[in-house]
Amino acid sequence: MWKITYRVHRQKGNEPPHYETFQVEVDPEEYVLDGVEKIWASEDRSLTFRHACHHSTCGACGMRVNGVEKLTCITKIKDVVQDGGTLTVEPLRNFPVVSDLVVDLGPLYRKMAAVQAPAVHALSMTPWEGQNIAPPADIPMRSADEEYIRLPDCIECGICISACPVAATDPEYFGPAPLAAIQIQGLDKPELLALADSQEGVWRCHSAFECSAVCPSNVDPGRRIMDLRRQVSAKRLKLA
Amino acid sequence: MEPQKNDPKNLWDWFNPKGRNVGGWAFILNRIAALGLVFYLYLHLFVLGKLAQGPQVFDQFIATAKSPLYILGELLVIAAALYHGLNGVRVLLTSFNIGVPQQKQMFYTALLLSVLGTLVFAVRMFTVH
Ligand code: HEM
Ligand code: SF4
Ligand code: FES
Q: Is the distance from CB of A208 to CB of A165 less than 8 angstroms?
């Protein structure tokens, strides 16, 4: 077992934020979220944080670990701190802080709704992944024009928006995940073209690619924004 | 609290390199270089303004501009212009989804070429005159 210090961002109501430290005994193979749960279980029941699935599916446990956005349920303690060291956990940036480590992801969910992010989509809608996904050969299609359906990669964790330097000063910017959701659908719907080709759409991005660096779910939103720029330009120049 | 547009306390997030990755460094450097170039543009216009004050004033300025401190300043401008221009090409290419998976290598190339270009200028400016 390791003895490490958790330095935790605390903030209730409208009070200014402060940091509190907790000594925690952890197995280095455990995850950052496990340590937060230990603090809650044995030190301070008023500590608030979000999680559900514990396996990178629900997107609830995004936090900043030593200043870098992580899904804490899949971030191993040994990868971010050494025995005896200090680990800082803070809420995501660029969202309203509700309490301690909990942010309100509502702005992201509303943008995902505005871009009509699909709950499932045809495999062919994401050719980049499609190349690496072998459809199960032993499950026959019922007809020739039937398509394989898959869940989108994006788990709507908001990590990309927290890491985006543009979102830091522009909460209205649609941001990586919503723009990636438009890219996946293409620009046949005029309302999606209007959103993508707007001041708060693809042209707001400054190509820092921080979203792609932190995305835990292989969405590569930075590349998708760039492809959406290409699509918008082609549409406007009537090349496509 | 709701995040606000152009919140001054978040401006530092544009420049803070802590926790940033390669693309983030490229953006930070590009923005610093761009701001430096704009500042230089005004400085340049101010200096050109001295022309209107007659040849004597201007020649006097040119004499001081040959000091090593001025040359170092000019080298900064050259470095900023080279990096901003070369990285600008990187940003333009990636904006058409060309070379996005290679954006890191493109950044390193832009940086290397800027350093080499600045060195060439440095050697010439400190030896020729
Ligand atoms: C070789 C010529 C140049 C090229 C190819 C170029 C290219 C670019 C590109 C692509 C951007 C957008 C970067 C982004 O999205 O963050 C940009 C931003 C900018 N450029 Fe240039 N540029 C050049 C010269 C200049 C010069 C000479 C100045 C100043 C006198 C300048 C000032 C700026 C400013 C202020 C910005 C905004 C920076 C920011 O938003 O971070 N550029 N440039
Ligand atoms: S694009 Fe990636 S980082 Fe952004 S919300 Fe979706 S899964 Fe999270
Ligand atoms: S707890 Fe569900 S993604 Fe981490």
A: yes
Q: Domain locations in chain A?
A: 2-102, 105-239
- Per-residue tokens: B64: 């001081």
Q: How far is CA A176 from the centre of its chain?
A: 9
CATH node for A2-102: 3.10.20.30
Query: How far is the centre of ligand 1, averaged over its atoms, from the C-alpha of A205 (Å)?
Result: 14
Please judge whether B6 and A169 are an interchain contact, meaning their C-beta atoms are less than 8 angstroms apart: yes
Name the band, by pLDDT with cuts 50, 70 and 90, for residue A133: low
Sequence spans of domains, chain B: 67-129
* CATH class label, A105-239: mainly alpha
Contact residues, chain B, for A67 at CB < 8 Å: 18-19
Band the pLDDT of A128: cuts 50, 70, 90.
confident
pLDDT (mean) for A192-221: 96
- Distance to chain B for A76, nearest Cα, Å: 17
Dihedral-angle region of residue A31 (phi above 0 means left; psi in -120 to 50 means alpha; beta otherwise): beta
Instruction: Give the closest-approach CA distance of A225 to chain B in angstroms.
Output: 8
